[in-house]
Design a protein that fits this description.
- The complex is a heterodimer of chains A (366) and B (156).
- Chain A is α+β, with helices and mostly antiparallel strands and 366 residues long.
- Chain A has helices spanning 9-24, 34-40, 42-52, 57-66, 71-82, 157-163, 173-177, 195-203, 207-218, 287-300, 316-322, 325-333, 340-365; strands spanning 54-55, 87-93, 100-105, 116-117, 226-240, 249-263, 276-283.
- Chain A has two domains: 9-82, no CATH class; 96-121 and 146-323, no CATH class.
- In chain A, a hairpin with an 8-residue loop joins strand 5 (226-240) and strand 6.
- Chain B has 156 residues and is of the alpha+beta class.
- Chain B is built from four helices and four strands, in the order ααβββααβ.
- In chain B, helix 1 (10-21) runs antiparallel to helix 3, helix 2 packs across helix 3 (94-107) and helix 2 (25-35) packs antiparallel against helix 4.
- Chain B is elongated and about 80 Å long.
- The chains are: A alpha+beta (366), B alpha+beta (156).
- Strand 1 (54-55) of chain A pairs parallel with strand 2 (64-78) of chain B, so a sheet runs across the interface.
């Protein structure tokens, strides 16, 4: 158990002053601006927004600067900050079908209405260090543009399968009938959690943890053979209904990443064989995260789809209880804080056990 | 006066509030300087930053869930003639919310509405659309046609 300690104020102050100096680094090197962070380290900003569960790129950039690039520390700062603000309410669900797309790809259909849009991707780069970037002052060629904008009609890829009845419908009557939406920032997580709480938890869960869990069914732990049906990255409008207006208004746009997987399903007594779905959605440009999220979401649906529970990725309590990196780091890292009293009693106990054992040995020898 | 605008009438207001929410502050300041007509307003609710929980749907159109919060700043103000304007804008810019509310009030004045729509809302919207289209054209340049290759051993 952690116990309060007294004293050490001067040393702590000095440690924080030292931290501030180290954060700044060599004063001969130009200081980072928040604009530089949000413009040039945009994936770090996306991650802090997604896992901090707060869409505000300026705050995320500030948190990254303050945390010296430690993204989990930055996420911690964001989570702490959000508790200082009042909650105005809940938005209308965002309409990702109406997204202003930067990117839209499918691994299942080559020819899509609207086409495959690569967007600003690392895919197909050679992953060779580009030493040209080490030199400053290089302005890249402006991106190519077409004369026409993208097709306005970009149907959801999985709806193409839905037309043939080959995939489970996304909308289920019983889910729509239940009007309540769980919110784990308001009520503590209880099990079994519904899919709403699972998706909220995964959307803000640690990318590394979700990635590893998503990898596990691919390697055979509760295999569900996933294809990426569609990935969409871009901006969507957020609609909110203020009480004083009585109708919904658009309050701005947010960038999100979305992934829908198409998974195998053998069929059960209730359902004919058809494809099933996994879903991933998160703030910012975070493709790896939403693909992983969709794999984990699908694995967690084992009960609903009548599958056997054979692997950790299907264990809702295990997954949801360990996905939050702020909870995890809080508990893991707290063991470095003073546990002197606790440890003293352990020390006493071990000494006594050893003394007793020695006594018994001596008595047995006599 | 009643704040609620009847159903047949809220679509234009919905539209201009959406445009104002996305406008650049510098543009709003410039337009306000030109259009305000010396009006003085009082705050009913001074600019205040808070959170809106953004929601998504499983599969894009299925079960609703809470995706995460976003910062939002709101402001309500009143003109001397009683007209009330509201501003709700993503982010933490208090002046942005205040000017959005001021324009919302101004646009509710029947004698000013058409002119402000044309001079302000239309121009803000054109800029917003142009930026969106520019991005869309860059994305469109990355539209790809993949050809599936027949593997050597499979060719017959």
């Amino acid at each position: 158990m952690y116990v309060a300690v007294k004293g050490g104020e001067k040393a702590i102050d000095n440690a924080h002053q030292y931290l501030a100096e180290e954060r700044r680094g060599n004063a001969d090197v130009a200081e980072l601006t928040l604009e530089q962070i949000s413009e040039q380290l945009s994936h770090a900003v996306s991650r802090v927004m997604a896992e901090g569960s707060l869409f505000d790129s300026e705050l995320a950039a500030l948190a990254i600067k303050q945390a010296r690039g430690d993204l989990i520390e930055a996420i911690f700062l964001i989570r702490a900050y959000r508790t200082t603000l009042p909650r105005f309410g809940y938005s209308e669900p965002i309409d990702t079908a109406a997204m202003a797309l930067d990117r839209r790809i499918s691994a299942t259909f080559k020819d899509l209405p609207g086409g495959q849009i690569l967007g600003p991707t690392f895919d197909y780069t050679h992953r060779l260090l580009d030493f040209a970037l080490a030199a400053e002052g290089l302005t890249p060629e402006p991106a190519e543009k077409t004369v026409e904008t993208l097709d306005a009609d970009m149907p959801r890829v999985l709806e193409l399968l839905n037309d043939e009845g080959l995939i489970e419908p996304a909308v289920k009557e019983e889910e729509l009938a239940d009007s309540s939406v769980g919110d784990l920032t308001r009520e503590p997580l209880e099990f079994p959690a519904g899919r709403d709480l699972r998706l909220q938890n995964l959307a803000r869960g640690d990318e590394g943890f979700i990635l590893s869990l998503g990898y596990s069914p691919q390697r055979g732990y509760a295999r569900n053979h996933a294809f990426v049906g569609e990935i969409r990255i871009g901006e969507v409008a957020v609609e909110f209904s203020p009480e004083e207006l009585g109708f919904s208004i658009e309050i701005g746009d947010i960038k999100v990443s979305e992934c829908e997987t198409v998974n195998q399903f053998q069929g059960s007594k209730k359902e004919p064989a058809q494809f099933t779905r996994g879903y991933g959605l998160a703030f910012g440009h975070c493709e790896r995260k939403v693909i992983s999220m969709a794999l984990v979401d699908r694995a967690l649906r084992w009960q609903e789809l009548g599958e056997d529970k054979v692997a950790p990725v299907q264990d809702e309590e295990f997954v949801l209880s360990h996905s939050d990196n702020i909870q995890a780091t809080g508990f893991v890292e707290h063991i470095k804080l003073p546990h002197y009293v606790d440890f003293q009693s352990e020390l006493e106990l071990v000494r006594r056990l050893r003394a007793n054992a020695l006594q018994e040995q001596m008595e047995a020898a006599e | 006066m009643s704040e609620k605008i009847n159903d047949s009438n809220f679509e234009p207001r919905r539209h201009w509030m959406g445009v104002l929410a996305r406008a650049d502050l510098a543009d709003l300041e410039r337009h306000w300087k030109r259009e305000n007509g010396g009006v003085h307003y009082r705050h009913l609710r001074p600019p205040e930053t808070g959170l809106v929980m953004a929601r998504g749907r499983a599969g894009g159109n299925g079960q609703r869930f809470n995706l995460g919060e976003m910062t939002v700043t709101r402001c309500s103000l009143q003109f001397p003639d009683g007209i009330v304007g509201h501003g709700y804008v993503a982010g933490r810019d208090r002046r942005h919310a205040e000017l959005a509310a001021a324009f919302d009030a101004l646009l509710q004045r029947p004698e000013r509405q058409e002119q402000v729509k044309q001079h302000v809302i239309h121009s803000l919207e054109q800029k917003y659309i142009a930026e969106k289209e520019d991005r869309s054209k860059k994305a469109a340049a990355t539209k790809v046609d993949f050809y599936t290759m027949v593997r050597g051993e499979d060719a017959s």
